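Thread: Newbie trying to understand structure tokens

Hi all, I'm a second-year student working on a class project, and my supervisor (Dr. K.) asked me to get a predicted structure for one chain before our next meeting. I've only ever worked with sequences, so writing a 3D structure as a token string is new to me. If someone could post the tokens and maybe explain what I'm looking at, I'd be very grateful. Here's the chain:
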Amino acid sequence: MTATTSQPLIAEFEPPSPLEESLPTFYIGHHESKRPLPVTEFVLRQAQDAGYDMLTSPITSPHFHSRVLTLVSSYIVEVSRLETSDDLNSTSSIPPAPIIPPLTPFDTPMTPSDTLSQLIGYCSPWIDLCSSDPLISNISRQVLNIEIAYASFCGVGNIIVPGPRNYSSGSTDNNGIIQYARAIQEALTIGSYIQMAIHVPMYGHDEVKDMTGDLQPFARDYQSSGKSKESKDLDLFETWDAWNFIRSPSEELSSNFES
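---
Reply by user tm_fold:
Sure, no problem. This is what the structure looks like when written as tokens:
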């Protein structure tokens, strides 16, 4: 009969080291700026099988975009006609900015479902909340508020809002940022349970990209400042100053920096 000696067992689970506890967790998402079809559960499962944790989805469709452009174009034509007519004695005859009608089933790819918790809503990049043209800034705020309200209704938990199109719009250097910050604060009151991320570059401005149906070219020249934007030197901290100004009134914003 052989005797056996028992050896001390090594603990199967060791407590994590302080270094391991401090390591950040990364979530990988896939963003397609021109996603043609709604994100179904099958598409989401395919993305997860490929290693993605989440997908982005536009909140509104090209049909809604077309409706907004038609509304803006019709208003500008009407205002131009009134301004050139002989019986126009004052600007009081110019109609107020148009109101965007409510969304229809053709205006959005989103519907309330269980998959929305794994989607990030992406607001329309063709709006310009910093525009010095009151018409364009008004329409842009309406679009943002409509998208935030509908995404909140559907149960979307996270939304990405495109950052400011410029940092010096209007008669003073930060008028555009003031307009943008006010629009974000208004959107936060509409979607109080939504986490918003402001999509801005690390420094400078995003490269100018031609977007079909961009509202910026519709803007009329309302700038009273004669300073040339092209001659302005690049400020490495301009993006941070703008972001800090936007987030200062509220602690509910998160930043989404793009390198």
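A couple of things are worth pointing out once you decode it. Residues 62-84 form the longest helix (23 residues). The radius of gyration is 24 Å. Feel free to ask follow-ups in this thread.
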